[in-house]
Amino acid sequence: MSKKKALGRGLSALLSDNEAVEEKLEVDIPVQVAPQPSVATGAIAEIPVEEIEVNPFQPRTHFDQDALLELAESIKVHGIIQPITVRRLTANQYQLISGERRFQASKLADLKTIPAYIRSADDQQMLEMALIENIQRENLNAIEIALSYQRLISECNLKQDELGERVGKNRATVTNYLRLLKLPPDIQIAVRDNRLSMGHARAIINVENPDQQLYIFKKTLNEDLSVRKVEELVREFSNKKTEESTSSPAPAASASKEISQLQSRLSSHFGTRVVVKSDGKKGDIKIPFLSVEDLNRILDILKV
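Structure for ParB/RepB/Spo0J family partition protein, as requested:
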C-alpha cells in the first residue's frame, strides 16, 4: 500500500508540475527567454528573433497586412502554437525554412524569442521545402500552384511522379496544373486574378489554336458561360477542320522585333491572333474572325 501511495504522490506532483509549466508558458511566451545556442539539430528551442533571417527562396512575396496584425494579436494572447522551422547557419544565426507568417507576426507582436524546430538543409532542400509549404496554402490560385510545380520540376530536378509524391497529388493532377502554363498570357492572368476558374481554363486548353482559345475566353467572360457551355464550345471547335495551314501563306522567315511586338499587342487587344506584314515601307494587318458573332465583337472594338 505504501508503494501505491508513493506512486500516487508522484503522479500528483508530476501533474502539478505540468500545470505550472503550461501556465508559465501561456503567460511568458511573449517575453525573452535565454537563448540556447547549444541545442542540437532536430530539437525545438526558443531562438531569439533577431538571430533569424528570412528565407531567400521564399516564393511568397506578399502578405496581407491586416491578417498579419490579427495573427500578431492572437500571438500576444496565446503565444506561438506551432513552431517555425529553421536551419542553423552559425552558432547564433539561423535561416527560416517555413513559417514566414508566424515569424513576421511574432515580430509585430514584439516577441523576443520564438519556438523553432532546428533542422539541417542545403539550398536545394530549402527551396523545395519553401515551395511545398507555399503550395499547401489554402488560398493559392491555380496559376500560382502551377508556377510552384514548374519551379519544383525545373529547379529541384524533380520528375512529375516525384513531385506528386512530395505534394500528395497524383500525376494527372500535376499535369493538369502544368498545362495551364501553356495558355495565352491573358487567360493565365484571368485565372490568377480569379476572373476565370480552373475548370474553364482546363476546358479551353483542349483547343490547340490560340486564336480559338482567346475567342472562347472572351466569350466566356462576356457572357458569363458555365464550364459545361465552354466544354460544348470546345467540342464544336474540335470538330471543325482548321484551314489556317492551307489558306494562309507562310510567314516571313524572320519578322522584325517591332513587328512582333505590334502583333502581340494587337492580338491581345482584339482577342485573336493578328498578323502584321510589312516590307519596311508598306504592309497590311490581318484580323481573322471565327464567326459572325466574333466579327461583330471586333467591329465593336474598332467602333465601326
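The first strand starts at residue 44 and ends at 48.
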